[in-house]
Design goal:
Distance between the termini: 47 Å
Largest sheet: 8 strands, mixed
CATH topology of one domain: Immunoglobulin-like
Number of strands: 20
Helix content: under 10%
């Protein structure tokens, strides 16, 4: 059965944070001694003060009873997390400031529940005039434009929200409700495919934006909402000032930009020979063995054939792979300068050799 967490505002109060810090500071230190009260302050309990129990959510109690959580909040013996595999491709037009994308998501249901409906975040809808905001968003003139949407091999149409609607999808602010053609049983997986377009917001937008020359692109693709063992679906609206609860997954990302534009993104670049010039690759290789900073791309190198290869039809596609991460972002510009310096990072791939 699908479970939906109630929507609630995310409020972070400085007073509460200060109180928490004060509480931590009054605990026992390594020596076991308790600091004496400051001069002029009494340690007596104020009159009328009383201890209050911290309320425990019903969902947490159910998770403890079901073995997915311990009373401490740590994972229990029956703990599970959902998993997603993303294959995303997008093309940026720097002139129109538009991004067009196509993506498939293979969603693995590791929960013990059968899911008739799944939820997807369209965080770019923050910039839709129809979305709600908790901060000033003066550039909210255009959100995510959806194209073809399919699930389990069936093309879906946009319709109303809620049960009894049959297969289809609806959009409410930054949340997309997708009703599956066939319920997703425990241990099963469903493949979803979505085409979309959006306009990259101007510089000053929350967590991203562009100034016409440099594009920092965040929250740019349809992303699975979290379904967990305590609250079910986490489908709070993105209002502009918030933090995010995201699930983990693997990402294969292809990004098409004009030739001569450098791209930096989450994960590992898979095709350096296709996009980086021979000169850039040689300098980058030398940087891995250098003892100091190496200039990989200087001011005189910022053009096709120098910083990058010459692209087909004036474009290049950069491919990245990121594993076991909760999100991917990227940035691109024809104005970037690139310096590199080696850094020892241990042996993350486990091949017995230190990596740089």
């Amino acid at each position: 059965m699908d479970r939906i967490a109630p929507s609630r505002p995310r409020i972070i109060a400085t007073a509460l944070l200060s109180l928490a810090v004060a509480g931590c500071g009054s605990g026992r230190g390594n020596s076991g001694s308790v600091p004496a009260p400051a001069p002029g302050h009494s340690s007596a309990v104020p009159a009328g003060a009383r201890a209050m129990e911290i309320p425990v959510l019903e969902g947490f109690e159910s998770a403890v009873a079901g073995g997915t959580r311990l009373r401490t909040g740590q994972p229990g013996p029956q703990y599970w997390q959902q998993w997603s595999e993303y294959r995303l491709s997008a093309e940026l037009n720097p002139v129109s400031k538009r991004l067009s994308g196509q993506g498939t998501i293979r969603y693995h249901n590791r929960s013990p529940d059968t899911l008739a409906t799944v939820y997807i975040h369209l965080l770019g809808n923050l910039f839709s005039p129809r979305s709600r905001h908790n901060t000033d968003v003066p550039w909210a003139v255009e959100g995510v434009e959806l194209g073809r949407v399919t699930a389990q091999g069936t093309e879906l149409t946009r319709s109303g929200r809620g049960k009894g609607q049959g297969p289809g999808y609806s959009v409410n602010g930054t949340v997309m409700e997708l009703r599956l053609p066939r319920p997703l049983t425990p241990g099963g997986k469903a493949e979803l495919a979505i085409d979309w377009r959006l306009r990259v917001p101007p510089d000053g937008a929350p967590r991203g934006g562009q100034d016409g020359e440099v594009f920092f692109i965040s929250y740019w693709y349809p992303q699975m909402a979290v379904y967990d063992d305590v609250n079910g679906w986490q489908i709070d609206q993105y209002l502009g000032n918030a933090e995010f609860y995201m699930g983990y997954g693997n990402y294969d990302v292809s990004l098409t930009v004009p030739e001569g534009w450098l791209v930096t993104g989450t994960g590992r670049l898979l095709n350096p020979d296709d996009v980086l010039s021979e000169q850039t690759r040689a300098r980058l290789d030398s940087a891995a063995r250098a003892s100091g900073v190496v200039q990989v791309v200087g001011e005189a190198d910022r053009e096709p054939g120098k910083s990058t290869t010459d692209g087909r039809d004036g474009k290049l596609t950069w491919r990245f792979r990121a594993e076991n991460v909760r999100d991917v972002a990227w940035a691109t510009s024809a104005k970037y300068l690139w310096d590199a310096v080696p850094a020892a990072v241990g042996d993350p791939n486990g091949d017995g050799r230190a990596d740089t």
